[in-house]
């Protein structure tokens, strides 16, 4: 059974909101996260098997003072909306690199190059053969 948890977090700046949302969303068993309240200082978490005490203590450590306000079961209507949202999220697949998608694996192979080596007969002077360069 899914449960709804409301935690009030004292956020000192606007940068704390995404940090709190990311921290809560990364917790095991969380289905959805939302901000509520007039000043957006309440984090509403819906999930199954979420530990509210551990979640509150993690918010205290990472964001700031936090207080557990409410823990209860999700109503049937909210549960239906949550199930519809989860089904819609599963239906959409995201590519890691949408602009660089190739339908098949292509491996570049260089074209063979024909090279002809021309060997000249030795002239018999032997300057290169003995390791000396000719005087100029």
Distance between the termini: 96 Å
* General shape: elongated
User: What characterizes the major β-sheet?
Assistant: 4 strands, antiparallel
Radius of gyration: 34 Å
* Helix content, binned percent: 25-40%
Average predicted confidence as pLDDT: 78
Give the amount of beta strand, in percent: 15-25%
> How many DSSP H or I helices?
3
Q: Spans with pLDDT under 50 lasting ≥5 residues? A: none
How are the strands of the largest sheet arranged?
2-3-1-4
Count of strand segments: 4
- Label the structural class: alpha+beta
Run of helices and strands: EHEEHEH
What brief labels describe this structure?
136 residues, alpha+beta, 4 strands
Question: What does this molecule look like?
Answer:
The protein is α+β, with helices and mostly antiparallel strands. The protein has three helices and four strands; from the N terminus they run E-H-E-E-H-E-H. Strand 2 (30-36) and strand 3 (42-47) form a beta hairpin. The radius of gyration is 34 Å and the shape is elongated.
Describe what is shown at a glance:
Helices cover 27% and strands 21% of the residues.
Structural topology:
Layout: E1 3-9, H1 16-25, E2 30-36, E3 42-47, H2 52-62, E4 66-73, H3 76-91
Antiparallel strand pairs: 1-3, 1-4, 2-3
């Amino acid at each position: 059974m899914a449960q709804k948890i409301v935690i009030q977090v004292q956020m000192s700046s606007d940068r704390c909101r995404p940090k709190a949302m990311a921290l809560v969303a990364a917790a095991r068993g969380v289905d959805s996260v939302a901000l509520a309240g007039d000043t957006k200082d309440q984090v509403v978490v819906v999930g199954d098997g979420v530990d509210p005490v551990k979640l509150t203590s993690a918010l205290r450590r990472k964001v700031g003072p936090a207080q557990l306000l409410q823990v209860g079961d999700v109503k049937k209507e909210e549960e239906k909306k949550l199930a519809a949202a989860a089904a819609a999220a599963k239906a959409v697949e995201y590519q890691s690199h949408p602009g660089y998608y190739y339908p098949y694996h292509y491996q570049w192979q260089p074209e063979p190059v024909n090279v002809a080596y021309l060997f000249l007969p030795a002239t018999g002077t032997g300057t290169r053969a003995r390791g000396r360069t000719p005087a100029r």
